[in-house]
Amino acid sequence: MSEPPAAPTGPDLGRGVPASSLAEGVMLLGHVGGEPVILARSGGVLHAVGALCTHYHALLSDGLLADGVVHCPWHHARFCLKTGEALGAPAIEPLTCWRVEDEAGTIFVRHVSAAPSPGAHARRPDAPRRIVVIGGGGAGFAAAERLRREGYDGELTLLSADVDAPYDRPNCSKDYLAGAAPREWMPLKDAAYYADNAIDLRTSTAVRSLDLSGRTVTLLDGADLAFDALILATGAAPVRPPVPGFDRPNVYILRSLADCETIIQAASHSRRVAIIGASFIGLEVAAALIDRKLDVAVIAPEAIPLAKILGEDIGRAVQALHESEGVVFYLGRTAVGFPDGSVVLDDGTAVPADMVVLGVGVRPETGLAMIAGLAVDHGVIVGADLQTAAPGVFAVGDVARYPDPRSPGVLIHVEHWAAAQRQGQHAARVILGQADRFTDPPFFWSAHYDMVISYVGHAEGFDTARVDGDIAGGDATVRFTREGRLLAAATLGRDIDSLKIELDFAR
Ligand SMILES: Cc1cc2nc3c(=O)[nH]c(=O)nc-3n(C[C@H](O)[C@H](O)[C@H](O)COP(=O)(O)OP(=O)(O)OC[C@H]3O[C@@H](n4cnc5c(N)ncnc54)[C@H](O)[C@@H]3O)c2cc1C
Ligand code: FES
Fold first, then answer.
1. Is 441's C-beta closer than 6 angstroms to any atom of ligand 1?
2. How far is the CA of 92 from the centre of ligand 2 (A)?
3. What is the pTM for the complete model shown?
4. Which pLDDT does position 124 carry in this prediction?
5. Sign of CA dihedral 469, 332, 378, 224
């Protein structure tokens, strides 16, 4: 969460606007009683909804309206213009809907209209009666939330090894780590939500094994739980390289909110941090700890950070930005040890450090799937509907490997927040008989100081990264192609480009 922008802009829609001024597909930003509202015509019909995205409060009028769906400019959440419903993560809450009144060619928006009640959707009579979700991260939470929102009224259990109820994991390397976001912003829902929606959330509850033929999961304490349908959303775990000294107590990984708070605590009495890995997480941690006034060194074997994913031009710009903020890079180097007080590199350099943060990547948490005999190959293999070979057993999010809808025969594995949540939402809809193939293009964002990079698509092994615009100036699109085919695009300051490319990919 973040705070909504202050003063509303545009016309006072309560006082009316001429109908003739509202062209098809254009979002007019206005306000009603101080609330920002967008009024838009889609398919010839006028609708009005709240103008602020329910994720981080982006102004939706800066996004896109296509086929009756409003696309958020920042992290690509999708809302139904007619009902306000949050169709696609990372937004979960619906938009407020407003009544539109046409009085002799003048359009007035004065009153909130009734929200569609959760559960008012079509139900499948043969829907499973006991659903167990393993994993209380982005994907597992979104699956449980969507099941209830779509009217599933059977038993629903959400099991999480994490001590905390589902929270905003991406913020663990951004504002929350930097000290710029309060703790209240972190939970995805408050505690009452789970009770009110009959979601049996069990935190600090690890699953030990799965029995697919007996349709049970066994918890670490030995208790069994029966299911009719199961969603495996166990995510991924950080890799800890086997370097002497990396088992010291002042060497940290970052996956959970508890990890983040441990790092915040360590940073409060440290002066110098060495970050191992110039990954997205490594670099976001660098930015956050610079904000906390630490001396930050980043050690990584590659020559240019992030170049493998974002290309050399963005990689260099990200590096330059971090250097301008005071980060010192040791590139082309690997850490070979952490004797007390400094990280030793393969060329003998000693990088002084009171604490070390590891950001060298993650491995999908496939242990349970392997024990159960499910197919695993760099992730749990699922079909286009995100179902494993075992009927009624799904894998979603960072643990899953699924067919790329744009490249027949190719399986992909992505580690992105919105993608994980959308997969969870999709599996919920498949269980309820409302969906089959998962076709959303992958999307992620990464934030470094005031530079935000949006990335849509999947471009493993691109051969060309074509830059259009000024990366250092924060106004650019980089298109990643292989043999001339567009695979993905990264944008800086060009949200509409990013949304349009996503829409093209989804068609
Ligand atoms: C610090 C950080 C910052 C990030 N920033 C971004 C970003 O800016 N943009 C972006 O797109 N992505 C970002 N990501 C990636 C994104 O958070 C992940 O892709 C996403 O969380 C994956 O969701 P998931 O539900 O699949 O897995 P997770 O969110 O990891 O959740 C997995 C859950 O499964 C539980 N679990 C595991 N094993 C068991 C078991 N045996 N029994 C019970 N529970 C179990 C875990 O406790 C956890 O609750 C970031 C990740 C991290 C760690
Ligand atoms: S602010 Fe809209 S998706 Fe994040």
1. no
2. 10
3. 0.96
4. 65
5. negative
